[in-house]
Amino acid sequence: MGYTSDAWRIDAGSTPIGFPVHYLVGGVRYKFDAGPASLSFSASRRAVTSSELSYAGLTDPITHTTWGGVRRDGIDMHVGADIGAVSTFADIGVGELTGRNVASNQEFILRTGFNVPIFRQATMRVLTGLVGNVWHYTDNLRYYTYGQGGYYSPQRYLSLGVPVEWIGRRNDFTWDVTATVGISNAYEKDSPYFPIGLPSVAGLAASQSNNVFGGSSTNGVSFSYGFAAVVQYRVNPYFVVGARLNIDHSHDYAPSSGMIYARIAFSARKDDFRISPTPVRLYSSY
Fold first, then answer.
1. From start to end of 101-142, where are the E strands?
2. pLDDT at residue 155 greater than cutoff 60
3. CA Rg, the chain, in Å?
4. What average pLDDT does this structure show over 16-36?
5. What is the DSSP letter of 52?
6. What is the DSSP string of 61-101?
7. Whole-number Å distance between alpha carbons of 199 and 120
8. Backbone φ, ψ for residue 284 (5° rounding)
9. First-to-last CA distance in the chain?
10. DSSP symbol at 16
11. CA 135 – CA 111 distance, rounded (Å)
12. pTM summary value
């Protein structure tokens, strides 16, 4: 459940009940617009949906111990400004990642860039620009043994990409398609098999392991690419259907996802003259 206005967005909910680990989530965001610039601040708890372990948690069938269900308690800021035809932006976030029987971790993320139109019509636009990312996590907890988190958490991840975005509208169809190519560099340090030790189960105390998962590092830079597309159709003033696809690929990080969705309004919506679609988002990425 939630509330949205021009300035405020407030929500409260839960990760899926029935998962081995579930908990309350929610957030508060305030947005301020000043002419060609905007600024927003948010504080939230969100699920980390990178894997079954990080999102739902897992239960070991022999020891019956449960771990996982990672959540991010974070503070985030977004700033954007239009300078002539150029749109600039920056996103900064810091977070504490915790879970049931999972080692805690700290996160810092910076994403910044700009885009500029290279083709413009009343119902169509093509843009390009430059986007950079900087990620840092205190520990590498990407693995799935007891105490690990099952989410990508490099100690250094740097990327620079050039996106080309095509957005447009034709009658009741709207679309937003982006292809990105770039370079990236990543480093992950070694990670213990059991970062918080073994569970307190009879017979395991003497089996503590000092083994570690070996880290990895990009030699120089590696090639990265991405593709994202949203297509939406307005059936009538009450009903909208759409589809969304996201593909990303870089060194040791290749998440992909897709979805189809429908949006139903309880009252007829006025004509929407925006040329880009507004897709449904999963609550975990609200």
1. 102-121, 124-137
2. yes
3. 21
4. 95
5. H
6. TTT--EEEEEEEEEEEEEEEEEETTEEEEEEEEEEEEEEET
7. 60
8. -65, -20
9. 12
10. P
11. 9
12. 0.90
